[in-house]
């Protein structure tokens, strides 16, 4: 994707050596598939930044510097629907008709979407791993302070807004994580133990 290739790779966190600077040198007339893919890529990038303001700041998109990611069930489901919809649109594009550069981006984007869907639906780290929330809180502040993209007072003001949002959002997640941990530690009665317990209980 010509103008947004650097942002796409940064947003996906890819270590693949995509020809970022030399793409225009090999430019050719885009096919219909290329145009469809580049339009999808622009929509994906914009929506991804809206769904993950912390990642947006780190990527260089500063429209949402006062916001944090919505880690509630509603926010998680919105992201999951978006990933499924984007993957469905991606798979409808004939990748054999894409330029070589766009074929690379197609593979990167597809793998990223599938990984995100699997993590949310199957691994479900959001339900039991507190490190994800710790990383979100740390990243919310680090991404504002690591680079001097704006005057310090402006970045500090954004950090104050984010701190308050982290306090409210993550306190709720902490309660849910504690309840989940308690359920995992509590031994589940077997049918035999249940029958013995029922017989020993007073009528």
Outline the structure in words.
This protein has one domain. Helix 2 packs across helix 3, helix 4 (73-91) runs antiparallel to helix 5 (100-123) and helix 6 (131-145) runs antiparallel to helix 7. It has eight helices and no strands. It is mainly α. Helices cover 67% and strands 0% of the residues.
Chain-wise SSE layout:
Layout: H1 5-12, H2 32-51, H3 53-59, H4 73-91, H5 100-123, H6 131-145, H7 152-185, H8 191-200
Helix pairs in contact: 1-5, 2-3, 2-4, 3-6, 4-5, 6-7
Short description:
With 203 residues, this protein is mainly α. Helix content is 67%, strand content 0%. The chain has helices spanning 5-12, 32-51, 53-59, 73-91, 100-123, 131-145, 152-185, 191-200.
How many beta-strand segments? 0
> What value does the Rg take, in angstroms?
22 Å
Largest sheet: none
* Shape, principal axes of CA atoms: flat
Q: How many DSSP H or I helices? A: 8
Share in β-strands: under 5%
The overall pLDDT average reads 84
Distance between the termini: 73 Å
Which segments are poorly predicted (pLDDT under 50) over 5 or more consecutive residues? Answer: 1-5, 13-25, 186-198
Helix content range of the residues, please? 55-70%
SSE class: mainly alpha
Overall tally of structural domains: 1
What is the string of SSEs from the N terminus onward? HHHHHHHH
